[in-house]
Write a structure and sequence with these properties.
Blueprint: H1 10-13, H2 27-36, E1 39-42, E2 47-50, H3 53-61, E3 66-67, H4 94-102, H5 108-127, E4 135-136, H6 137-142, H7 144-153, H8 161-170, H9 180-199, H10 211-217, E5 219-220, E6 223-224, H11 227-240, H12 243-258, H13 260-268, H14 273-284, E7 289-294, E8 298-300, E9 303-305, E10 310-314, H15 315-318, H16 322-325, H17 354-371, E11 375-377, E12 382-383, E13 392-394, E14 396-399
Parallel strand pairs: 2-10
Antiparallel strand pairs: 1-2, 3-7, 4-14, 5-6, 7-10, 8-9, 11-14, 12-13
Helix pairs in contact: 5-7, 5-17, 8-9, 9-11, 12-14, 14-17
Bound molecules: protoporphyrin IX containing FE.
Protoporphyrin IX containing FE is lined by residues 68, 72, 87-88, 99, 150, 236-237, 240-241, 244-245, 248, 281, 286-287, 290, 343-345, 349, 351-353, 356-357.
Length: 400
C-alpha cells in the first residue's frame, strides 16, 4: 500500500462494525459522519466510509478504479476468491458478460408476463388481513410475498417453500441467530437443489416466467454457464430477491403506519403510488452498504486513497444526504420528486431485479389501498441486528 495520511476516525466509525448498532437508530451517526468526516477512516478494520450521496455515485461509476472483485462486504476484506461467489463480485470485462447473459431473465416483456401473477399473490395475502385486528406485517405478508414470487421464478414447487425460506435466511449474516455451521449446511443444500432443478431444464422450452429456464439454456460464445456459474446466479437471485424486497415492504408499510397522513394522501390520490414506491425504497434502504477496493491511488473529496484501500459506500446515509434531498431529507414524503435514491446501487452493478422489486411493491400497495382506508401502528417495530441488510423482524400494524 502507498503511504498516505489517513485520519483516525476509529471511534466515530466503530459502531458501524457492530451488528447490534443497526437494530437501533443509526441515522444520527450517519448525519454526524456526513457533517464531520464524510470520507472517514475506520482504523480498526482498515476501510474508508463514504456517507455522502455524491461520493457514492462517484465510486459506483468508476469500476476500473473501485473494483468489486476483492469483496463487497467489510467482512470480506483480505479474502482472495478462486472464482467469484456472486455476479456482484465481478468486474469488467467479466461482469459485462454475466450481465448480458442474465439480463433477458429480467426484461420488460418477462416483467409484463409476470405482473398478473404478482398481483394475484398480493391480493391473496391482503385478503387474509382482518380489518381492525392488529397483525405483524412481517410474517403475515412481507415474508411470504417475495418468497412466493422468487420461488416461482426459480421454479421451486410449493411443497419446498419452507426449506427455501430457511436457505434464504441463511444467506444473510445476522438475519437469524443460527450457528454458522448450520448456515453453511443450508447454503450447501440450497446450491445442490437449485443446480439440479436448473440442469433438469436444459433443452426444455422456456415457458415465459421462470428465470431458471433462461439460465439453464443461455449460451455465451457457444458455451453454457458452468455449474459453478449457475449455482452462483441462482443463490444470488434467491437471496438478493428475497430479503431486500421483504424489508422494503415491511419497513415501508410501517413508515406509512407511523405517518398516517402519508397513507391518507395515497388513499386520496393513487397517482402518488409511483413516487411512494421510490420513497419507501429511499426510506428503508434495505442494502445498508456495499464495498469496493481501490485499484490505484486516487482521491475522493480531497482525501487521498491508496491502491488496495477498501471503500465502503453507506447507501443508508447517502439516501438521507441533505445535499441531495434538501432540508426534508429526514422526512418520509410519499410525494417526493425528484428522488434519486441509491437503494438499488448505481452504475454497472445497478440492481438487476429493480423492475421486479418495483412491480412487487406496486402490486402490494394497490392491493392494500383497494381494501383499506386507514393504517396505524399496533406497537413498536423491531429491527434486525445486521450491518448488511436493514431488516425488520416485527412490524405490528392495524389496517381498517
Ligand atoms: C427492494 C429490493 C432490492 C434492493 C434494495 C436491491 C439492492 C441491490 C443493490 C444495492 C445492488 C448493487 C450491488 C453492487 O453495486 O455491488 C443490487 C444488485 C443486484 N440485485 Fe438487487 N435489490 C433488490 C431486489 C432484487 C431482486 C428482486 C432481484 C432478483 C430477483 C435482485 C437481483 C440483483 C442482482 C442479480 C444484482 C447484481 C447486479 C450486478 O452485479 O450487475 N435484486 N441489488
Amino acid at each position: 500500500m502507498t503511504t498516505i495520511e489517513r485520519p483516525d476516525n476509529g471511534e466515530l466509525t466503530a459502531p458501524l462494525d457492530d451488528d447490534a448498532f443497526y437494530a437501533g437508530d443509526p441515522f444520527a451517526l450517519y448525519a454526524q459522519l456526513r457533517r464531520e468526516a464524510p470520507v472517514a477512516w475506520n482504523s480498526a478494520k482498515g476501510y474508508w466510509v463514504l456517507t455522502k450521496h455524491a461520493d457514492v455515485l462517484k465510486v459506483s461509476k468508476e469500476p476500473e478504479t473501485f473494483c468489486s472483485g476483492r469483496g463487497i462486504l467489510t467482512m470480506e476484506i483480505g479474502f482472495e476468491y478462486a472464482s467469484p461467489p456472486t455476479m456482484m463480485h465481478t468486474d469488467p470485462p467479466a461482469h459485462a458478460r454475466y450481465r448480458k447473459l442474465v439480463q433477458p431473465g429480467f426484461g420488460p416483456s418477462r416483467m409484463r408476463a409476470l405482473e398478473a401473477r404478482v398481483r394475484e399473490r398480493a391480493r391473496e395475502l391482503v385478503a387474509k388481513i382482518e380489518p381492525g385486528t392488529p397483525i405483524d406485517f412481517v410474517p403475515a405478508v412481507a415474508v411470504p410475498f417475495p418468497l412466493f414470487i422468487i420461488a416461482e421464478l426459480l421454479g421451486v414447487p410449493e411443497a419446498d417453500w419452507e426449506r427455501f425460506y430457511r436457505w434464504s435466511e441463511a444467506g444473510i449474516p445476522g438475519e437469524k441467530d443460527w450457528p454458522p455451521e448450520e448456515n453453511l449446511v443450508l447454503l450447501g443444500e440450497m446450491n445442490a437443489y437449485l443446480l439440479a432443478a436448473t440442469k433438469a431444464r436444459r433443452g426444455e422450452p422456456d415457458v415465459g416466467i421462470e428465470i431458471v429456464s433462461v439460465l439453464a439454456n443461455v449460451e455465451s460464445d457457444g458455451e453454457q454457464l458452468s455449474d459453478d456459474e449457475l449455482a452462483m446466479f441462482l443463490g444470488q437471485l434467491l437471496i438478493a430477491g428475497n430479503e431486500t424486497t421483504r424489508n422494503t415492504v415491511s419497513g415501508g408499510i410501517y413508515a406509512l403506519a407511523e405517518n398516517p397522513e402519508q397513507w391518507q394522501r395515497l388513499v386520496d390520490d393513487r397517482s402518488l403510488v409511483e413516487p411512494a414506491i421510490e420513497e419507501m425504497l429511499r426510506w428503508t434502504t434495505p442494502v445498508i452498504a456495499f464495498m469496493r477496493t481501490a485499484t490505484r491511488d486516487t482521491v475522493i473529496r480531497g482525501q487521498d486513497i491508496a491502491a488496495g484501500d477498501p471503500v465502503l459506500m453507506l447507501y443508508a446515509s447517502a439516501n438521507r444526504d441533505e445535499d441531495e434531498f434538501g432540508p426534508t431529507a429526514d422526512r418520509f414524503d410519499v410525494g417526493r420528486t425528484p428522488n434519486h435514491h441509491v437503494a438499488f446501487g448505481f452504475g454497472a452493478h445497478f440492481c438487476l431485479g429493480a423492475a421486479l422489486a418495483r412491480l412487487e411493491i406496486r402490486a402490494l400497495l394497490d392491493a392494500l389501498l383497494d381494501r383499506f382506508g386507514s393504517l396505524e401502528p399496533a406497537g413498536p417495530a423491531e429491527r434486525t441486528r445486521s450491518a448488511i441488510i436493514a431488516g425488520v423482524k416485527h412490524a405490528p400494524v392495524t389496517f381498517s
